[in-house]
Amino acid sequence: MALTLYKKKRSFKDTPEPVGGKASGTGLRFVIQKHDATRLHYDFRLEMEGVLKSWAVPKGPSLNPEDKRLAMMVEDHPYDYRTFEGIIPEGNYGAGTVIVWDEGTYEALEGGNKKEQEKTLLQQLKKGSLKFKMNGKKLKGEFALVKLKNAENNAWLLIKHRDKYAKESDITKKDKSVVSGKTIQAIEKTSKNIWGSSPRKNLLQKNPVSNELKKKRPRAKVKRPRSQKL
Ligand code: MN
Measured in angstroms, how far is the CA atom of residue 41 from the centroid of ligand 1? Predict the structure, then answer.
């Protein structure tokens, strides 16, 4: 299964990171998470076959076609990871702060419905040359991800194509989350309110289904002494 490596690297009782998730909606989604870990980098993630194909981009994306940004392909991440913003606790893989730096949909240049686009993109991924159009809040227009030959296996380049969205100004200067409007530093400072010291507990509070289960528990306890009396 595609998420084996992702799960192997993490202990889910110690981190609020998502375990899985199912893709929905008509468009293919992308997310770019700014991640202040051992080294600051941007995680560039594209939805494909229900998971997020992922690259770590040390310098972050650029809208300047002259820039070729190194992108190291990493393990697939679960679809639900795209909304993750918060703290990965110390002692866990990738420990540090994460914000959703950009998000939106993306599409194959060849068009077609979601399934057809996915097929095209997976073929391109296999060949090491992905071309797509991004409809994000910060990143727009055509981009390419090209696998480097004769380099390390997982080294790719992220390049902006020349179109009306190409710009010379540094897009990474827009450093706030497109979800919360907060910078990495602000999330780091307020993170106790988001995840707290018990991530699993916070995950339950954030998940309405788990909250339902939690509410039912005391009721079951009340019933037990009554049945003992019978
Ligand atoms: Mn990362």
Answer: 6
